[in-house]
Amino acid sequence: MSPTVTPSDSVACTVCIANYNGTGLIDACIESVQAQICDFSFEIIVHDDASTDDSVEHIAARHPDVQLMASRENVGFCIANNRLAAAARGEFLLLLNNDATLLPGALDALMHEAARLQQPAILTLPQYDDGTGELLDVGSLLDPFLNPVPNRDAARNDVAMVAGACLWLPKRLWDELGGFPDWFGSIGEDLYLCCRARLSGYPVRALGTSGYRHRVGQSFGGGKVCAGRLVSTFRRRALSERNKTFVIAMACPSPAVIVLLPLHLLLLLLEGALLAALNGRWAYLSDIYLPVIPALLQHRREIRRRRRDIMAARRIGAMRFFSAFTFLPRKLRMLYRHGLPRVNR
Questions:
Q1: Domain shared by 47 and 173, yes or no
Q2: Does residue 255 have a cis peptide bond before it, meaning omega lies within 30 degrees of 0?
Q3: Could you tell me the pLDDT band of residue 6, with boundaries at 50, 70 and 90?
């Protein structure tokens, strides 16, 4: 086993864990990392996001070898990971959710693939449902509106995006891409980073070996199929639709963005109106979908600036960017298979 290293040791990999109210989760997460058998050194850093449970005291007492960063205010997943990356000493970063646990051989598989590629890349492992053991995805493709489409073909390694629950990359690539946008808060930051990396010519790959188990929806509630029906929450859905729209505006290649962004906004409003009418609740439209447009206006300067930077660093054409896309909208597939989603408060 390769334990958490001391300050005098060189570090090959830093495992970055963002934690909020994770007393019931964090032990399994940390212990799954500490149990990894590999021939390189690693460190573990946990950022506690002003938890209201006893996470800080619990982690300090149970895991004294882990570097703990305790925030005085709740800043969200993006800022938490930006802080973790800034403090990391490893050549590589592994961003790991506190509700995720690594399977044996995970770190070794990621490091081996990074060495084999001999170029900066974003990597992940197969994702399994923590409760059932079902394979959830081996990375994801995207539909035209940047909705993730799970890839379950272990032989298909080049994907459009990987989940931030288990995301590996060189620290220098993280620095080049600028990390996560602080103003995203949470959700969609992995989509942004992967789109930006692919446009800059860096591979986004999902390995077919080892893996991680994930309690999907633990942080925000919902986000998965339960009893044959998609279940989500107002907060998760609102953040997802808003931040996905930001990514379309910033990272969708021209001239496709001229068509896709207005069409995406129109479909969002139609979706919100349909859900509001069928469920008899105006809040579906007013709390989830309508706020997307003022949010675009509020952040328009930052969106324009980042789009200029992303397109200036672009090294691939639109055809190659869209090669990891499927062209049947994901929401239509989910509607056909599972009916209307249930969105809880």
A1: yes
A2: yes
A3: very low
Rounded to whole angstroms, the Cα distance separating 268 from 234 reads: 14
**Residue 71 neighbours by CB distance under 10 Å:** 18
> How far is CA 242 from its chain centroid?
15
What amino acid is encoded at 173 in this protein? L
198 and 229, same domain (yes or no):
no
Give per-residue pLDDT as tens, 21-38: 999 999 999 999 999 999
Number of domains in the chain: 2
Residues 144, 257: one domain?
Answer: no
Range of the domain at 193: 13-214
User: Domain check: are 241 and 268 in the same one?
Assistant: yes
In total, the chain counts a number of residues equal to: 345
